[in-house]
Sequence to fold (884 residues):
Amino acid sequence: MGRNTEKDTESLVNSKRSASKEMRRAQLIKATIKCVAQKGLSSITMADITKEAGLSLGIVNLHFQSKDKLLVETLRYMSEEYGESVHRALATEGGPAAKLTALMEMDFSAKVCQRNKLAVWFAFWGESKSRPIYQSLCAKIDEDANASVHTLFQQLDKDGDYQHIDPDNFASVWNALTEGLWLDILISPNEMTREKAKAICQGYLASIFPRHFERPRKTKN
Amino acid sequence: MGRNTEKDTESLVNSKRSASKEMRRAQLIKATIKCVAQKGLSSITMADITKEAGLSLGIVNLHFQSKDKLLVETLRYMSEEYGESVHRALATEGGPAAKLTALMEMDFSAKVCQRNKLAVWFAFWGESKSRPIYQSLCAKIDEDANASVHTLFQQLDKDGDYQHIDPDNFASVWNALTEGLWLDILISPNEMTREKAKAICQGYLASIFPRHFERPRKTKN
Amino acid sequence: MGRNTEKDTESLVNSKRSASKEMRRAQLIKATIKCVAQKGLSSITMADITKEAGLSLGIVNLHFQSKDKLLVETLRYMSEEYGESVHRALATEGGPAAKLTALMEMDFSAKVCQRNKLAVWFAFWGESKSRPIYQSLCAKIDEDANASVHTLFQQLDKDGDYQHIDPDNFASVWNALTEGLWLDILISPNEMTREKAKAICQGYLASIFPRHFERPRKTKN
Amino acid sequence: MGRNTEKDTESLVNSKRSASKEMRRAQLIKATIKCVAQKGLSSITMADITKEAGLSLGIVNLHFQSKDKLLVETLRYMSEEYGESVHRALATEGGPAAKLTALMEMDFSAKVCQRNKLAVWFAFWGESKSRPIYQSLCAKIDEDANASVHTLFQQLDKDGDYQHIDPDNFASVWNALTEGLWLDILISPNEMTREKAKAICQGYLASIFPRHFERPRKTKN
DNA sequence: AATGAATGAGAATTCATTCAT
DNA sequence: AATGAATGAATTCTCATTCAT
Fold:
């Protein structure tokens, strides 16, 4: 039942009785992500989640008190995980171009940009209007990433002496662009792939900052 | 209990007994949209919807057979409504620049881009991975609009003799941009407004097609 | 499954679809009383109650919102029913002696003093410390009845010119006496019966107000 | 977390590891009494009880096998404790009047007649119809006490040469009176206090056996 | 002896759907 | 066509009990 395919918690988790509190929580959150991706926020049940995690029905309430809180913690986990990825990308050696490339690579990496995770992001975004706690968690991470991108674009503009009239506008486009491409990957997986998306981003950067970015080999499919 | 604030079905709808089949369906779909926006796809109930519509509990099953079908019809309704808006924008008198402007105005108009509707779009997108029917409805409308935009960008490039290396890339960015801005409006309404979003789009177009589009007055808040 | 053995709601209740809201509530409350008597407050389930009532599982939440509220309403029903019995007894034609006799007859009548109902009273009393709403409902009815008894004792004292030093003390004893005898009937049904209890009360009255009350034939078992 | 405020087990109990089997049982029973009073029989959980006792969740099953048995042992403990109090009162030096006074003082003493304990008595009485084991435990103690009271009343009658027609009747009243007053203290603590209750009992005795008992100073509040 | 994480049966509650009116 | 009381399957949540440590 190959669960827990991506993190380091794995080995410990399987010994039923031992796993520490934090481990169990992580295990359940991961099962939740998988289930939300597969069944959608509106139809997952506690039974789905605990079965996916290979644990008993009562365990969620033991560790999270309620389904609701589990979902909030799941979103928080995803936000933090994404935040760390952003942080790591921004810590890349080199100038703003290198950092921006790293950010792009991360945003469309197999880990971050898998359809499973995209589905979960959109699921939470879809509920964010009716659930203020979702909204504030989503807004936070979004705004943080946006701010960093704005700085990078300004540095790039100065760095390359492009003298663009409004580098901030390019930055804003960039930010929205990423999310829009995610949507395309999610709902039109036959039309849009991670590779195509990266090429679009790359082409966009090359058109603005030609001395920093090369055109992608081919934009065509 | 002023519901249904925006369409032309209104007057007929309120005379409880007379409303024709089609009217009832529209009335219920509108109530559904409102409820999904307010409560989220995962927690709306038939009782919520029928109460919002001012009708009896049993009526949904009478007109739509099941909740599930009502939701699908709701998405279909929204897709058609959006498709018609696109169609109308593309029918604008004038060249590709005028059409593109019309498209943009439409995408960020009060009617299309209200947070209620955005919430519903994202709600369906969030479920689209697990519900193939949602996905195909969403993909269809998205791809149609995208195709038109690609054509417009190509015409614009030729029209203004810009000789851009890859106008398709700009078109792809444009398409994703719109959706990304919708997300920002949905989850960070304090940071992103319809006006700001339009300015970002306008700035983007001006930077690519300067002979067709003016810079917006100000991008700053 | 002989339910509803004591009231007038019976005939209507059995036609599944027709029963009015108020009827359904009464039907469920009666089933609750029966179940509490048989299983105890701490182990009745909604399934017990609805099965006893011959109705479906969901119906309690439909009519009472929650189990908790059903129990409160049950106590309220019993309080009101008892209150009415008291009221009826006090309306008996004749002087204070006749009224007091009526009260006593009522308190130890088959209807009021059946072990089923006593069990329910004690069940609620037993929870009253931890459930303020129970306490206030119980206190209310108790205090009302007590007040009436005090008045009767004062009238009797004056009426018969007994010149007791403290008729109020006799009244207080009387009030507590009734409840204490109920306990004996409940927990020692072999030792204490309704008939014996009445004889004790009668003997007590005869010893205080000999010109108004006769001694019971025999106090012995 | 000052628990167990009233007995002599205390000092030993707090040294977690040392406590002997008997001590642990007493500690758990006291925690149970406190919890039943505070939360009611129908909603106490093992977690409540063990937390109150400052012990681990698993310990009840270790010492009592099951929750059910713990409750039975709790009732048994209370019955024995009360039985001993009765016994001690009856052992008072002096004649029947002194013994009866001692009994009354005990029944309305701070220790026996605290609302916490009354709540527990009523809780068990409330379940006694549906739980034969509770009933037999309750009946036993009740009948024992009653028998002693009957003897005392007979002795008093003879002793004072009152020549009452039916001293047994007075004894029966007395027994029920005590329990009825407990109920009043439980559910109408603002109306009935231990002091008032004693005054009522005292007044009752004075009216029957004026040469043995004085009237209380004042019956009024 | 003691602990407390884990279990899972059992309870309350929810809610789409049905159907008599 | 419309209503809304009733149903009962499905779901969440609770909690006594178990058992590895």
Summary: The CA atoms of residues 207 and 215 of chain C lie 8 Å apart. The radius of gyration of chain C is 20 Å. The longest helix of chain C spans residues 132-159.
